[in-house]
Design goal:
- Keywords: Oxidoreductase.
- Pfam families: adh_short_C2.
- This is 3-oxoacyl-ACP reductase.
- The protein has 8 helices and 7 strands, in the order βαβαβαβαβααβααβ.
- The protein is of the alpha/beta class.
- It has one domain: Rossmann fold.
- It has a 7-stranded parallel β-sheet with strand order 3-2-1-4-5-6-7, sandwiched between helices.
- Strand 2, helix 2 and strand 3 form a beta-alpha-beta unit.
- Helix 3 packs parallel to helix 4 and helix 4 runs parallel beside helix 6.
- The longest helix is centred in the middle third of the chain and has 29 residues.
- It is globular.
- The termini are far apart.
């Protein structure tokens, strides 16, 4: 059974990805800061197919130990889904420096360091899949999300360059860029803001976490063996 490490898997999109991957026959190592009731219920319903592991991407020195422990417990990691992220809404000029640093660390620097250590084992086995969760905000921009947009744009550049670095040993690296979805991070979207987003979608609806999870599963599967270095949007067509 192939093991996929999913960060930020305790809720929202990460939880949807874990649910989809279990359904598609993977064993999921669900990483996060706390074991949520939803993830615990998923564990109880799928004994042996999902395990929780504590990971704090802000604690950069701990990431190498986490990757080593994960390899010891579960053997080679076949897939890595860098999903964990934070979005702090605020005008850049009034954001505290610590908030900017937090966004960049969790959304970009932490995932890069985690990928560094996990990909080493993948290179030894000469197989593996890495999927980074970006956002359409990386290319479209959005008022009040400058730091968030910068972090996701960094992740997309990382995706393209790493694909060139490690493709020769059989590892693919891709990104999924969801549009606005109904998650804890976007829970404050309502009224005029929500209507504006819906008007931009040809389908007249928001993409769901299940939609994005399906794309992640596809990129991890055999039909995506020749796809690497790409950024795929799942946004109801709002960026068309």
């Amino acid at each position: 059974m192939k093991t996929v490490l999913v960060t930020g898997a305790t809720r929202g999109l990460g939880l949807s990805i874990a649910e989809r991957l279990i359904r598609d026959g993977y064993r999921v190592l669900a990483a996060g800061r706390t074991l949520s009731p939803q993830l615990e219920a998923l564990q109880n319903a799928n004994d042996g197919f999902v395990e929780f592991a504590y990971l704090n991407l802000e604690d950069l020195p701990s990431i190498s130990r986490f990757a080593k422990d994960a390899g010891s417990r579960f053997g080679p990691i076949y897939g890595l889904v860098n999903n964990a992220g934070v979005g702090l809404d605020g005008v850049l000029g009034t954001m505290h420096n610590s908030e900017i640093e937090k966004v960049m660390t969790i959304n970009a620097v932490g995932p890069m360091i985690l990928t560094k250590y996990v990909s080493r084992a993948m290179m030894l086995t000469r197989q593996g899949r890495i999927v980074n969760i970006s956002s359409i905000i990386a290319s479209t921009g959005f008022s009040g999300l400058a730091a968030y947009a910068a972090s996701k744009a960094a992740l997309e550049g990382f995706t393209r360059s790493l694909a060139r670095e490690i493709g020769r040993v059989g590892i693919t690296v891709n990104a999924v860029a969801p549009g606005f979805m109904k998650t804890d991070m976007t829970g404050g979207l309502q009224g005029d803001k929500l209507e504006s987003i819906l008007r931009r979608s040809p389908l007249g609806r928001l993409a769901t976490t299940a939609d994005a999870a399906g794309m992640v599963s596809f990129l991890l599967g055999p039909d995506a063996s020749s796809i690497t270095g790409t950024v795929t949007t799942v946004d109801g067509g709002s960026t068309a």
